Every structure is written in structure tokens, then in C-alpha cells.
Amino acid sequence: MSSLRFVQVALMGATWLAVSGAALGQGVVKLGMIGEFSGPFAQYGQQILGGMKAYMKQHGDMVAGKKIEIVQKDTTGPSPDVAKRLAQELITRDNVDILVGFGLTPNALAVAPVATEGKKLMVIMNAATSIITTKSPYIVRVSMTLPQVTQPMAEWAAKNAIKKVYTVVADYGPGLDAEKAFSEAFKAAGGEIVGSIHTPLQNPDFGPFIQRVKDAKPEAVFLFLPAGEQGIAFMKGYEERGLKQAGIKLIATGDITDDGVLEAMGDPTLGLITSFHYSAAHNSPENTAFKKAYSEANGDKLRPNFMAAAGYDGMAAIYEALKKTNGSTDADKLVAALKGMKLTSPRGPIMIDPETRDIVQTVYIRKVEKTGGGLYNVEFDKFPDQKDPGKK
Ligand code: PHB
Predict the structure, then answer these.
(1) Looking at the structure, do residues 47 and 121 belong to the same domain, yes or no?
(2) Do 140 and 151 fall within a single domain?
(3) Is 129 in the pocket of ligand 1 (CB under 6 A)?
(4) Which of 18, 169, 172, 312 has the fewest Cβ atoms nearer than 10 Å?
């Protein structure tokens, strides 16, 4: 064979290998994104995916020689059975390599055993009940836990002359976690819990609950509700029943003043104090770049919130992990690469706890103010390096 002919044959062989490799999916890493894209929690999926797209806008869709593809699925709300079936289909039919997303706790919990059985990395980009990461060795969380963001609020309240608090929480995992973390930390700091209410996850009518709080005359009400529509409804009731005028302060986790709905809640939120890990008003070059990429990737209609930030950070973590594994999607290798990983997030420094696979981060105390042409959660105090106290 002439040397030219040899080169031609060799090139043909290389091309064939490349083509068949792509056909087999060897050059692609598929992310199965399970989120809430319809119903009352539809903004969860939209925000998380929006954050993921913002990362890809900034960093491209290639990492470690692999092309990143997203296959998106809608749970339609808190529907564990649907979430589980979608995860099974994503693994067996769509051949995804990694499971990502998960706004609501019940959906994440239902998928955990599927990730274990299918040996797939599962990256939690919101669902925040403490226990979730213990349900599969392949789960890594890049969002928050309710005990983590709640405990600083209790400590701050006790230090700021609040002594008697009524707690109101949504009646499911994150709400019960928040209630426990708040009561324990607040009592330890000398405070008193004068009553507690659990509100339904779906379609709550807050009026009667708010009246009960008012009648008990606490100094403050501590609130956890899942972000979005419910916060709007609660703030309306708080305003209508005159709690502010009665001198009852509202303190909460930042889910209530979610950046995605803060403008819709309007001026009644002014002065509201919350504790949380992300604010669109966070002042850093990383956050400025994140917001720019988010609007370039998704348009200007929605302000990115904490779920978008977690979607973005989840992608950053996946890209960095793939670099370390040279593109391997083996779940054990990816989890090993993620343990102890440190990133500079739009929210500040974050780390994946090597023992729990949960996130370690700064929790900020913020106040709603009118600034920069709108309502924002302005950070004024912080608790650095917070682990999930739910696991101590
Ligand atoms: C959850 O279901 O874990 C969840 C949902 C919304 C939040 C926080 C936690 O704002």
C-alpha cells in the first residue's frame, strides 16, 4: 500500500470510529432533568433549568471532550409516583448518565432508590429536607437544607430582642425541618415558642391560620412556606388581618421573599427580615456575571432566584467533576470527585461536605428594601461556613 493510500485508509477508519462513537453516545453526557414545569410550582423547573442554561451559555456545551445534553421531564407538581417513573424511563429508555433537578422534596425522595439501583449520580438543585442526601450514596446537594438556613434566623431573632414566637410551616419535610430547627435554636438562646401551625402543601387558605396567630399575640411569627405563589397569598393575609399594625413581626427563611415573586408581592414586603443563602442583590463579580448569563440565556422576564443559582452551581459542579474523571460518568467516580469540591458560586463560597455530600455555605440575614429600581433582599449580616445542622 502506498503511504498516501495508507493515510487515506487510516483517516477513513478514524472517521468511522468517531461516527460510531457518537452514535453509541460515547461522546455525549446526557443529563436527565426532572423538575416541576406545570401547575402551581411551575416556576421551580423553569428557574432551575434557567440556571443550568445560564451556565452553559457562559461555559459552552463541551467538557472533558464530551458534549452535554439535557433531557427535560415534568413531574407536574408534587407527584412522587410520576417523578419515580420519569427517572426510570430516563435511565432505561433515554440512557441518561446523570439525574438532576428536583424542586420539591417528595419528588427527590421518590427518585433516590432509582438512582441507587441504576448507579447514577443524582444532583439535587433545590429539594431541601435534611434527610434527602442520606437516601442514596449517589446524591449530592448543591442547594441548601432548611435547618441550615433556619438556625441563623433563630439566633438572630433571639439576639434582637424577640422573645415570644409563633411558628407557621408548610406541613411536609422542609416545613417540619424548619420548625424543629427554629424551636431548638430559639429555645437554646432563651426564646419561647407560644404556638405552632402546620399548613397544607396544596391550596392552603391562610386567613384562619393568620387569625389564630394574631389572637395569640406573639412578638413575631416565624414562617416557612415553599417559594412562590403561597408566599404571595400569605403576605396578602398578613396585610389584610393587620398583623403588622398589631406589632407582630414576620421573620422567615428567604423562600418567602423569593426573588422570582418579590416584585409581585410588592410593598407589604418592605422591611421583612429573612435568612437565606442566595439573593439576586448579592454583591459579587460572580453574581453579576451569573445574572447577565441568565438573562442572555432565558430573556429578561424572570429574575433569577435561589433555585436558578443552584441549577447554575449544579452544572458547575458537574463540569468540574467530569474534568476530574476525564469524562467518565461512573457514579462512584463522580461522587468521589464531588466530595470536598469547592466553588465560588454567585452566592459566595460553597463546598460539598465530603462526609454528608451536602452543601456547606454562608447564610445571610437580609432585609427587603427598594433599591436598584425594585424590591430586593439586601444582605446585612452573615453566618459563614454553615453545615447542615440536621446531620450533626
Ligand atoms: C422542598 O420541597 O424541599 C422545597 C420547596 C420549596 C422551597 C424549599 C424547599 O422553597
Answers:
(1) yes
(2) no
(3) yes
(4) 18
